[in-house]
## 1
Amino acid sequence: GLGCCALVLLLLLGGSGSPGTSPRPRGPWPEEQGAVPEGAPWGRVRYEAVKEHLGAVGALSRRYWQYLACKVWQEGCEEEKQREDGEASPIPSWGFPLVGQDYLEILSAWYCSFGKCCETGDCRIINNITGLEADLSGQLHGQHLAKAVVLRAVQGFLQSPQPQKALVLSFHGWSGTGKNFVARMVATHLYRDGLKSDCVRVFVSLLHFPHHNYVDSYKAQLQRQISETLQGCRQPLLIFDEAEKLHSSLLDAIKPFMAQHDSEGQPHQQRSIFLFLSNLGGNTINEVALDFWRAGRAREEIPLELLEQRLRLELQEAAENSYAHSHLLRENLIDFVVPFLPLEFQHVKLCARDAFLARGLPYTEATLDKVAQMMVFVPKEEKLFSAQGCKSVPQRINYFLP
Ligand SMILES: *[C@@H]1O[C@H](CO)[C@@H](O)[C@H](O)[C@H]1NC(C)=O
């Protein structure tokens, strides 16, 4: 029980060369006796409890706690940072040389593993829906459908008390329309460390599974990596880029992880999110967008239902090009198909503006026009859609620097 955990903690720190006082045995922590009202910040209470205990051991400086609080609760980090900036080597100056960073890592990982040390129950998970919405609104251009679907899907999934299956989204559209951008945004706003989080895993078909001859070993490797990620995190995010190039047997290998959790012996609170990014259906989406434009209607009027229906039809027919999304569709594993519309001149200009702003560089309306004019627009007659979307726009602004 917790008594034993406290002991481990004391041993961990007591055995680390703390000078002076020996640990004084104590009873179980009062905070752990059910005295905490429902909904109280458990993490904080536990933090105070541990703090008191370890303070009594006399082994810890205020700074140590500051560091731990920063690590575990993301609190007091500024103070910690200032110190780091001000001193050449912060850790040796702590006075407890053996209580190093490794111990802190172990301690905070262990501490987080039994308790709700963060609001989400896992400090790696932040689930900042407000931030996601703000970024989708401010930085994703021309994608009213993708924005709405992603936000609704992710928010609904994270709020549902006991999801029966993983959330599976399939992003479709031409390259440069923002599929990767949105996947990254989701990672950034759901996880403290974004794409680098151990809860997040990105697979790029041609990078990770380039040779069809090795499909069997890829399959074993993929299954191992997915189960590791699923076991190490209760809200894992798995991103499959270039999904149209994923061998169908690899897709089959992923399927069991998306289905019912119970059969896999996963804990019930597990919330896995799968994103598949592909350019399949891109042409269909573009045809619909072009039809709307020719009919003099705004792209914002394009209804999701229309695109979703056309996309699902097309994906089923795409089975012969070894793309196996259709299996997923047949088994209803894909919850949402997310269409990314082709980008127009005005959207490319907005991407250019963001690129200038991101680098803190000045720009004029004329410069933005020039950057956008570098892109190829199709179809031949209308020259309406950027063939590469906003791809490489951040690099292209280099030509127009003062
Ligand atoms: C959520 O993200 C927004 C924008 O990135 C940020 O301003 C806000 O502080 C974040 N909220 C939390 C609780 O982290």
Note: The radius of gyration is 26 Å.
## 2
Amino acid sequence: MRSFITINIIIMCLIQLSLETSIWTTFDDIIVFGDSYSDNGNVYALTNKSYPQSPPNYKGRFSNGKVWIEYLAMKYQANLIDKAFGYATSDNGLVPGHFQWDNTNYSVPGIKQQIDFFINSHPNQNYDKTLFVMGYFGNDYRYTNNGIDPSVVISSLIYSASQLVNNLEPRIILFPTIPLLPNSTQNSTFTNHNKVLKNSLDSFSAEHPDVEVFLYPFDEVLLKFRKSADLKEKLNITNIFNNCTSYADASNVCETPENYMLWDEVHLTTKLYEYIANDVYDRLICL
Ligand SMILES: *[C@@H]1O[C@H](CO)[C@@H](O)[C@H](O)[C@H]1NC(C)=O
Ligand SMILES: *[C@@H]1O[C@H](CO)[C@@H](O)[C@H](O)[C@H]1NC(C)=O
Ligand SMILES: *[C@@H]1O[C@H](CO)[C@@H](O)[C@H](O)[C@H]1NC(C)=O
Ligand SMILES: *[C@@H]1O[C@H](CO)[C@@H](O)[C@H](O)[C@H]1NC(C)=O
Ligand SMILES: *[C@@H]1O[C@H](CO)[C@@H](O)[C@H](O)[C@H]1NC(C)=O
Ligand SMILES: *[C@@H]1O[C@H](CO)[C@@H](O)[C@H](O)[C@H]1NC(C)=O
């Protein structure tokens, strides 16, 4: 079984013109810090299972099914340690992450706070078989209406990643770029963010040769999907412009979510999350 899987991986990577398979073919654990794209029920628990309304959301996800990181963990048969909260920013000291629900103002830990807490509560463990994920998808820009400079946000994310490196000695950290969605008023901000992220990770990576720093081009992959009639047909996605529901108020839901790319204004449907997870996996095993 094991060698059968290995042979399959070698063939897959050859198809992708990569000469060898990577060492990232198995993980025991995946640890994600982040926001609603990766939250598997943390905001839901915080609100005593009242928000995001489920159904139509799937068991507290901001989607109609599992989110990308859950599919990735399933692919790897890895244990998922999910520290992500919907509405989280890079750091509450920079932009406080919070939301209003049912007359209550809930505040959520930012990525920096999630990481600080994790480091303080998990000393001296071995993380050789762990994939760390910095699942940041742009909330600082949403709260400030694009009023914060990407270099500030990225410095904050890199600082948190350095804390991880200095305290936990991770072998690999994955950073996704932010996808550009139809009708978004944040295209140029996100494009800029993705560029600065790439440049900053080049230096971060050079400073930490023992850590594999993997920039996942979420934006390019989603754009390619949107432009490809074949890929859309394969997933039976016919609507890439409209949101099926709204994250603020999920009382209206479209008739056929299985044909939508967008679940709500900012989140993807579970089909797309599964597609992304498969793509992340295919790239990781051939790095
Ligand atoms: C949580 O929700 C349940 C069911 O709606 C309710 O019985 C319980 O009192 C709530 N708990 C808190 C702490 O609000
Ligand atoms: C909610 O709390 C956050 C801090 O967590 C604060 O910045 C925000 O102004 C508060 N909003 C309201 C409406 O009280
Ligand atoms: C944002 O960029 C995406 C991808 O290039 C494009 O499909 C969309 O129309 C753009 N939105 C705006 C408002 O420019
Ligand atoms: C694609 O979606 C349509 C509309 O929901 C449905 O009728 C059809 O059976 C789906 N096709 C496949 C191959 O799943
Ligand atoms: C994008 O704009 C179209 C046309 O104005 C609208 O029907 C659709 O709901 C919008 N989609 C999103 C995600 O806001
Ligand atoms: C789609 O998003 C818009 C906000 O951009 C919202 O007003 C609308 O209600 C949403 N559509 C549905 C079906 O919920």
Note: The two ends are 23 Å apart (CA to CA).
